Amino acid sequence: MTFFNNSALQHILDDLDLDDDFAPSPTPESASAAAAKAKRDEAERKRIERAERKAEGRPDPRLVDTIIVRALADALKAAGARAHIVRHRKLDGLALSAKEILALAMKGLQDRGFAKDVAKVALQGRLLPCEHD
Questions:
Q1: How far is CA 89 from each of CA 9, 72, 83, 97, rounded to the nearest angstrom?
Q2: Could you tell me if 65 and 126 are in contact, meaning their C-beta atoms sit under 8 angstroms apart?
Q3: Which whole number is the average pLDDT over 114-122?
Q4: Can you list the pairs that 98-101 forms with residues at least 24 positions away whose Cβ atoms lie under 8 Å?
């Protein structure tokens, strides 16, 4: 049994007359590598979207959601929801004002530096989305 040494292997490769640009064929991308690439691509798309939103002075939807939840919590507290639930063992009969909740959310966005018209559009987009959205 004979083994090729490096010079013998080099001689065989030289005889093959391979192009200098020779490169092995690409290996198929694994499922995990494809998923990681898709995740990176999505993260980059979101970074660009957030930068554009910030440049236009529009709030992040997560911030809008947080402010809406805070406004709802404040409205529940103001309406005495805890005492109502303790007394009646249910929320039925507790009235909240949608106008008050929206006003609190508007104030929350404006307190964070967003113009009234921008805050209004952001709240409408989150609470009253178009049917095709």
A1: 86, 20, 9, 21
A2: yes
A3: 94
A4: 100/75, 101/68, 101/71, 101/72, 101/75
